[in-house]
Amino acid sequence: MAALLLVSSCGGTGSGSGRTNTTTNEATSSGATTSPNTSESAGTGSPLADLDPCQLMTASEATELGISDPGKPGSTAGSPECNWRVSGQFGVVISLSPDKGVDSFNYHGKTPSSINVGKHPATKVEDSLQGTRVNTGLCNVFIAVSDSSAVQVIVTNSGATDTALACERAETVAEFADAKLP
Fold this sequence. Notes:
Layout: E1 8-9, E2 18-20, E3 27-30, H1 59-64, E4 72-76, E5 79-86, E6 90-97, E7 113-116, E8 121-126, E9 138-146, E10 149-157, H2 163-178
Parallel strand pairs: 1-3
Antiparallel strand pairs: 2-3, 4-5, 5-6, 6-10, 7-8, 8-9, 9-10
């Protein structure tokens, strides 16, 4: 299971089981999940409709985290996302949920906590895999752009360890993204 945690993304079936990213064909494993999005569009009336998730973290910001490669666009369950990876270390996903608010996510029984990432309210969920495992190296930050739209930042450490570091990285990426959101 640890090998599947390198890059995580939102969307999916809510089961927390591995699946294939529809654009990049990389194996992924869900952190917190939503109900499948049947629309392939980015929600026409959503404040996220015209956003590119790869533009929510600049190359300079990525470099601050030790990421040298550009983000790779993709989508999961119809939600646009961007994936960055530092081989053997960690992965970052920024996913847009134009038709789902923060309250629509399944936290797999984990307790969300409110955090400050900038101008929008945000929620952090540590070790958001289904089950009782702790220190999984997985952290999600959900930014509430509106009552019905959110941006999800997922950081997964290789080796499925050091959740505190994953959350530190996720909060940093969420701050970068929040500054660019409407």
